[in-house]
Amino acid sequence: MKSLTLSNSSQEILTQALQEMKDELGDKFSLDTVNLAELERRTHISRSKLRRLKKNGFEILPHGNKGKKKAGTVLTGFTGVIDDYLSKGVTNSEVLFERLIEIGYTGSISSIKRYISSHSDLIPAPRQVVSPQGNRGRRYQTGPGESYQMDWGFVNVVTGPGNEYQCACFAMICHHCGMRYIEFFPNARQESLFIGMIHAFIYMGVPKTVLTDNMKSVVIGRDSEGRPIWQKDYEAFMKAIGFETKLCKPRHPFTKGAVERLVRFVKDNFIVGRTFGNITDLNIEALKWCNIQNGKYHKAVDCIPCEVHTRECQSVAAIMTLTIETMKYLCPLRKISFDGFINYEGRRFGVPYSYTKKQCRVRREGFDLYIYDAEMERVLIRHNVTWSRKDSYCPDQFATVQPEEFPTAPVKSLLMQNIPEPPRIGFRKFAFGDKVDWND
Question: Which pTM does this prediction carry?
Fold first, then answer.
């Protein structure tokens, strides 16, 4: 028997086996009486399949559904959402996968990648920017818990047709493992910087140094020897928390490239296509996003950040403890207006009338806003943060008895007033006792 040459085509294997059997049997060979057991041994095709092929003269025909497309796929009903993102230039498959899961998508990310690849015509053409190759710098590494990087990012928030305002995103990342933390604020003032840093230290621990650029709220200049002149409030904040600050070279942002990349990643991943009700809701979603990203493998650091940070960095970084001194940074001072209101994050909140000082401290914690006295000894009032532009009054904001003014000099002016006589009553004439002097 001749050896059977294997081929990738089942039809070729079957034809070759039949030809060999025909050569061996000669005139006795017939397709109607072919030995299926022997044919199965030669072709390794099951006998049941050979019986089906025998009806077609051992010719393998294409499947009846070949070329037909399935009426519905896992992406059915979601293609409109993907098309909308692609038309806006959003091509990140992970972003689209997360957004579709939120609205009920049950498929895999591979289906989304294939759809993006086959619908690249929907993606607007990017603007080509050619930049020359600059000087190369050597990347440096830091030990566990040694250095964090921080920066601000800004995004425009659209509230309606033609209405928008700017929102600030505080970002901090561990340079060793890539552990990240973000928080949004209505502005990038120094008090917002302190609040964001304390929240990040509670989340990740206090490092030895923090690397940042030359912010106005951090440094006011440099002396003749190039050493930084710290802003006085920031210098007091460093001493209170217990860390040092290193500054980047001016106009040299890639020195802190990890946090610069984090800000861009937030804009390209977290911000894309997101709608929120208020900043409190946005920060809740931002914290969930941080927990998810810190639990994923990141190629840039070749690890899962939360695992390495828990195992290595937190043993070196100090634990953030809230004292009266540090709590004052979480509760900035506010002046009380003449009508009993304080202004915080663009809204006015009432202060009780019984508090007579001109300043107090305020802190927003979730959906509640707490107003403390200036020494942080007691809570004056708690407001529900409704995020309405209307003033929020408190029950005892105004005194129940109105204040009264009294003369500051002796009063010498005289004014006469006539006292009217009592009216005469008809039976008055019968009151004989009025005419008798009972003392006589």
Answer: 0.66
